[in-house]
Design goal:
This protein is mainly beta. The chain has a domain of 100 residues: Sandwich (Immunoglobulin-like). The chain is built from two helices and eleven strands, in the order H-E-H-E-E-E-E-E-E-E-E-E-E. A hairpin with a 2-residue loop joins strand 4 and strand 5. 23% of the residues are buried.
């Protein structure tokens, strides 16, 4: 009987050693903390055309936003405009003057940095540059759909 109990005990230990945790049991990967960005738009004059955009953060991020948060517009990895935070009717909005070429129709992605959490976000969808275009207003800002970068 002692031999059977010992064999059963060894079998149970050996069978559990080979098991791995299910992915549902693993802790969620922590989001990457990013350093404060030093985004700066071009000041050489190579982009004579502009468009304006007014963005609001989604409610889930707006509640934790601070005056030191950052937002910028990018074509690929080139910064084409840096947002300025303006409070309108108790809502923090980002006003961005986006630079481009008059005939340009490239996609613009928005990046948002939360100073409180050090997390970086990027817009789910891009907007298209349009010289003299307007995307959102102070009365009707475009609410960003953002994805947290890992």
């Amino acid at each position: 009987m002692k031999r059977i109990t010992s064999a059963l005990y060894i079998f149970l230990i050996a069978s559990t050693l080979g098991c791995s945790k299910k992915s549902d049991d693993l802790p969620e990967q922590a989001a990457t903390k990013f350093p404060v960005p030093t985004w700066k738009e071009d000041d050489t004059g190579k982009y004579p055309a502009t468009m304006t955009a007014v963005f609001a953060l989604p409610v889930t991020l707006a509640d934790g936003s601070t005056e030191n948060d950052k937002l910028a517009a990018f074509v690929d990895d080139e910064c084409r405009g840096v947002g300025t935070i303006v409070e309108v009717n108790s809502q923090k909005l980002f006003f961005v003057l986006i630079q481009g070429l008059p005939e340009e129709t490239k996609n613009i992605n928005i990046r948002y940095y939360s100073n409180k959490t050090s997390y970086m976000y990027e817009s789910k969808s891009a907007l298209t540059f349009l010289a003299d275009g307007v995307f959102g207003t102070a009365e009707n800002p475009k609410i960003l759909e953002l994805i947290q970068l890992k």
